[in-house]
Write a structure and sequence with these properties.
By secondary structure, the chain is an alpha/beta fold. The chain has 2 domains: 91 residues, Immunoglobulin-like (Sandwich); 189 residues, Rossmann fold, CATH 3.40.50.150. Helix content is 26%, strand content 33%. The chain has 6 helices and 17 strands. An 8-stranded mixed sheet has the order 1-16-17-15-12-9-10-11, with helices on both faces. A 5-stranded mixed sheet has the order 2-3-4-5-6, with no helix packed on it. A two-stranded antiparallel ribbon has the order 7-8. Strand 2 and strand 3 form a beta hairpin. The longest helix has 16 residues. The radius of gyration is 19 Å and the shape is globular.
Length: 288
């Protein structure tokens, strides 16, 4: 199953091919690498009218932005009633993953339904980056604890919350996610929902190593211990090649050991070429 984030007005994939995707972010057009795009381009993407910046990979690893026109340091784009700050960043990022709108919508609906029934939902967002999910779930009525090891990303999450009109409802934590969850278990703190967007590979602020194939199952088992007695949902996002939706489904089913249902799917974006662009996988456990 492929779920497509097709309700964007300020973002669009214009064209794809030869390992790149051409995108419109608000009024600005960027060209970035995408490892999923292994087909031939139908046009010369580097000669596209209005192209302002290209992220070029280096043969030595990494890469850098090449600017064809002067861009503002940052600018804002909106999705429905949410507003986010975007900018060209290192490792080809802009600070937002537009395809995640499908998960913002789905989990936001779950929170709104539970809130309407009189529940106050506490959400733990792990590897939370610049807070797309934190902002969306706080806007839906949840109390969110936002955890990421990178101080700069947590600060950006706070900016996104303010841009979206959220003055309270999000607690920001700069910490290694695994250590934070372990401490919350010892403290007896519990959450009704968990969102996690674990990296393929990374290091925590104290040099902690993370490799998703080795760590994810045990980490989800650990997170199960911080769930409330009546959890609402657990969402795993993955951009790691090889971790298919069924893998995420199996992890959730085996690690949580609860009665409920699991939805497993690809996430993607529409393109002006009329083909969908796959952008990763999701596994969503819902306690129904």
């Amino acid at each position: 199953m492929l779920r497509i984030a097709d309700d964007w007005k300020d973002y669009r994939v214009l064209a794809t091919g030869d390992g790149y995707k051409l995108e419109r972010w608000g009024e600005h057009i960027l060209l970035r690498p995408d490892p999923q795009v292994i087909w031939k381009a139908q046009q010369d993407l580097f000669a596209y009218p209005g192209l302002e910046a290209v992220y070029r990979r280096s043969e030595k690893g990494g890469g850098a932005w090449e600017y064809k026109k002067k861009l503002p340091e940052s600018w804002n784009i909106s999705y429905r009633d949410l507003t986010f700050k975007v900018m060209p960043m290192g490792f080809k990022h802009t600070g937002l993953f537009p395809e995640q709108a499908v998960n913002w919508d789905r989990t936001g609906e779950l929170v709104k339904k539970a809130t309407a029934a009189g529940r106050k939902i506490k959400v733990l967002n792990l590897f939370a980056y610049t807070g797309g999910a934190s902002v969306a779930l706080a806007k839906a009525g949840a109390e969110v604890t936002h955890v990421d090891a990178a101080k700069g990303m947590v600060e950006r999450a706070g900016e996104n919350a303010r841009l979206s009109g959220i003055a309270q409802g999000i607690r920001y934590i700069i910490d290694d996610c695994k250590k934070f969850v372990a401490r919350e278990i010892r403290r007896g703190n519990r959450y009704d929902a968990i969102v996690m967007d674990p990296p393929s590979y990374g290091r925590g602020p104290g040099g902690e190593m993370w490799k998703i194939e080795q760590e994810l199952f045990g980490f989800v088992q650990l997170c199960a211990q911080v769930l409330s007695d009546e959890p609402l949902f657990v969402l795993i996002n993955s951009y790691t090649t090889g971790l298919q939706p069924t893998v995420l489904s199996n992890i959730l089913t085996l690690a949580l050991g609860r009665r409920g249902k699991v939805e497993a799917y690809e996430v993607g974006l529409p393109t002006e070429e009329g083909i969908p662009l796959p952008c990763g996988a999701g596994g969503l456990y819902i306690n129904e």
